[in-house]
Amino acid sequence: MLVVSNVVFLQLIFSVLHKKVFLITPPFTQLNTPYPATAYIKGFLNTKNISSKQADLGIEVILALFSKSGLEDLFSYIHGKELELSDNAARIIALQEDYIRSIDSVIAFLQGKNPTLALQICQDNYLPEAKRFQQLSDLEWAFGEMGTQDRAKHLATLYLEDISDLIVECVDSNFGFSRYAERLGQSANSFDELYDELQKPLTYVDQITIKVLQKHFEEVNPELFLISVPFPGNLYSAFRCAQWVKQHYPTIKVSMGGGFPNTELRSLKDPRVFEFLDFITLDDGEVPIEELLENIDSEGRDIYKRTFLLENNQVVYKNNSVKADYKQSQLGTPDYDDLALDKYISVIEIVNPMHRMWSDGRWNKLTMAHGCYWGKCTFCDISLDYIKIYEPLTAAIICDRIEELIEKTGQNGFHFVDEAAPPALMRAMAIEILKRGISVTWWANIRFEKSFSADLCKLLKASGCIAVSGGLEVASDRLLELIKKGVTVSQVAQVTANFTDAGIMVHAYLMYGFPTQTIQETVDSLEMVRQLFEIGVIQSGFWHQFAMTAHSPVGMFPEEYNVIANTNDITFANNDVQFTDNSGIDHEQFSFGLRKSLFNFMHGICFDYPLQDWFEFKIPKSTIPHDFIANAVEEGNSREVKASAKLLYIGGKPSITNFIKSKKGKSWKMSSLIFHTKKESYSIQTGQEEGEWLSEILPELSVKNSKLLTFQDLQKNYEEAGLENFELFWQSRIIQKIRENGLLIL
Which CA distances in Å does 255 have to 30, 40, 251, 313, 547? Predict the structure, then answer.
């Protein structure tokens, strides 16, 4: 029997647990799926054989708080304070035993582990109900289309939000499920307010966060602690975590990166930031992190890539590394190891069908391309590398990563988080998915490009695409041109119709208040949106008021857009820029009416309401013809086929039977071809020569072939087979039927 000394045993344990790098996402982002930044970095570190561990503190803190023991502690804490309670808080506290008894079962249900609980949740006497449930009377009509599981998820979400309201009122006013102390990070030109907050004792939520973090540190003991901060709502907790590490592990280097620093901290000057951090890295994190690790390993080395640090009590930016950033193909597959993927919870906050995809179900996150292939929109941060530098992957690499993640996570749902997924690459990826026979469900953000033809949309649907989101922004051709969006309203209508007809849900990002926008253009934009929903080519949307950012063309050259930037002295964050619109129009006044109308349009009602009914102030009548969108969609139905167009057949191989047809003493050799689709079978009859040619050529048009035939190739093949009148045959009902069932022109 092998005997191992205690010392050796402890060394073995340490060697297993010790990781060179520890990565976290601080509270809070999404409840249903991990934010992917740490998984991307961990995947890269794997390619360098650098050991690492990652953690999503957001979901861990939520699960610690929303548990039986967590609620017991919460109610005990509240009882220990002398508070003037609102009626809502008093009701929740009075029902605390019901909350404590039900919380673990509800969380398990939202994790997908206890589906039968849905039947009880949907009964009126299971969940304790407070203020959030009052909105049910307004939404009751929507539940007619929701199944038991969905309705139960929504009710369970309201139950959690009631508890959240109690926390906000009695425990921590900064609490939020997908953001924490967000106001401290938004447009924080100075570090003063956040710094002052960090000098205060830990909040109740902070204590839970630090307890979770401490457990990880006791296990990991890293050399480099990396904090990914994607949003303003993660910033406060990020600094709290860094503060605790500096106090308890002063020799460990702490670095911050992610979406928030990349956009907001490029003008950083305040040295107090580095009381909490050693480094802040910008843009793609792989080479900056690699240089930090080499500096840690080599004392005296002073080489950095896009990194802020403190020297002689001054903030300095160092970019003296000669290493080029890695190609996207070299970064490895995102690695979700260490993340408790089975513990994320799916919630349905609102009935908006696209917004629920952000919170319901777990999605593996991938990108098709780095940056934006368009890169011209004037409201966008196109001056920054994460948008400006465009580099696509190949379809083969994307599908390799899809297959690897399906194998590792057991999940076949993918959210492509591109700035705008490139149509040509989407087409290639869809073909590769079909060629490999991968079963996958995916959605992505796009531009409403005219290249999204009806047949391309059918191909994307066949590969597993269920939804797309894209920016219509201001539905005005003048403003779309000023934005440099590269689309027109008519084009958007045609493209959204193509997606909808293919069975792919469409979500539109909508904007109001863009510089120089008139009241008439706002009203006309609403009418465009009304028509898009009325004819059913858009199913989901969201209005947001224009915000000017420092790194966009509007923010950099405001005078060109008739606005005045109200600039402050920047020592900390710099992104959102306050401005004065020289038009003098109060765009904020439209906010409620636009959102209220959209809520109704999304549910197929109130299309006949005059636009004036949505506003409490006088608006001009729309100048848009009532059938503008319908006509635009109809105009987009062109059947002209270019000779260079590629042909792809994604239907099944037909069976063929030859027979003789006789009539009035004459006979013809005929063929009957039987096709089987997933839903039905259909047959066509044609001349025997055409039938035999079809049965042979269709398999050659499948995804299994390495090279797609062009329309010109098809015509040549037809004529070489001794057949005549290709144009007539192509326009026949036979070809039309096959086109409806899988013969695509790309």
Answer: 22, 16, 13, 17, 29
Q: How far apart are CA 222 and CA 720, in angstroms?
A: 70
Helix residue ranges, H only, 449-488: 454-463, 477-483
Q: Span 272-298, mean pLDDT?
A: 97
DSSP symbols for 387-407: HHS-EE--HHHHHHHHHHHHH
CB-based contacts of 451: which residues, under 8 Å, 6+ apart? 423, 424
Beta 413-416 vs 647-649: how paired, if at all?
Answer: unpaired
Q: How far is CA 254 from the centre of its chain?
A: 28
Distance CA 249, CA 237 (A): 17
Confidence category of residue 182, pLDDT binned at 50, 70, 90: low
Residue 277 tokens, joined: 């951090």
> 299: Cβ–Cβ under 8 A, 6 or more apart, which residues?
none
Phi first, then psi: give them for residue 241, nearest 5 degrees. -65, -45
Q: Quick check: helix, strand or coil at residue 545?
A: strand
pTM to 2 decimal places: 0.91
Task: Please report, rounded to a whole number, the percentage of residues in the chain having pLDDT higher than 70.
Answer: 94
Average pLDDT, the chain: 91
- How are the residues of the chain apportioned to helix, strand and coil, as percentages rounded to the nearest 5? 45, 15, 40
Measuring CA to CA, how many Å separate 391 from each of 305, 631, 736? 20, 37, 38
